[in-house]
Write a structure and sequence with these properties.
Helix content: 55-70%
Number of strands: 0
Length: 226
Amino acid sequence: MHSSPPFNAPAARRLRAALGMAPGHVAYGLRAQYGLLVAPETVMAWERGEASPSQAELTALAGVLWCAPGELLAEPVTLREHRLARGISPEDLARRVGLEPGSYRRMEDTGRWKGNERQSAALATLLQLTLPQFVAATGKQEELAELLRNAVTTRWQAYLKPLTKLLPVPKGHLEWVLEQLYDDYQSRMVATLSWGSGGEAGNGGAGRDFLADIVGHFWALARGAE
């Protein structure tokens, strides 16, 4: 299960102050409007970063402070955090991407997205995810890195289809990025080998460094092709 969303304590304190409210006013609003029994001391603990509100408390707090839930969160990372930042319920998100609510909840709880290409595209659009955010939120970092390593060291064409299934990116766009990535890697390796250090240089040093940075290079190319 995921932990509580990354609560932005300074933002909560700033929003409350801007409304001219005291912690007691916030506690009263949570009780009167949402039926949540939260003490003023708890509100103060949230604002000091000593505790974090639950999902229900976060949604209610946003209502009391007249803001979107996302304004009370630090930078979201997980699928659940992105959903909370957009103020969408699990049931509504599941319906809009074409999943059963129970299936979606399991994916969110495990951090492993199993939707198809159409559902992935709908998810990225609904949550307004960049490609790096989509990969992180759906738990695909290791799979992406492995596919990219294989693509630049063998035949990139063989990995176009698996990557198209993994990422909500048009095939033609991804094809261009993979070809550029492959050419860049091969050029780097040829240059490394031509320095006269023999095969050892090609398998270590700059070769290893470039390979380790391949995902970052992929993102840079992907942004440049947009």
